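Each record in this resource describes a single protein on a pair of labelled lines. The shape at a given residue is found from the number at the same position. The record below illustrates this layout:

***
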Amino acid sequence: MALHRSTNDRIIGGVCGGIARSLDWDPTLVRIGYVLLSVLSVGFPGTFVYIVLWVLMPKSYEY
């Protein structure tokens, strides 16, 4: 399955929901892991990567 932003399982941009869907993982665990990784890397790289993924990942049109 290709990597797409989620339109149904999203909090901000759907990036973590899309990653979780493509890996068949729990979206909550992906979000917690992403926040922990961002905090441990002093925030900026994680925020920058999220914004880049938000812009580059195409939207999924699931209903």
User: Anything to note?
Assistant: Residues 1-63 form one domain. The CA atoms of residues 4 and 57 lie 6 Å apart. The chain has a mean pLDDT of 87. The chain is about 55% helix and 0% strand.
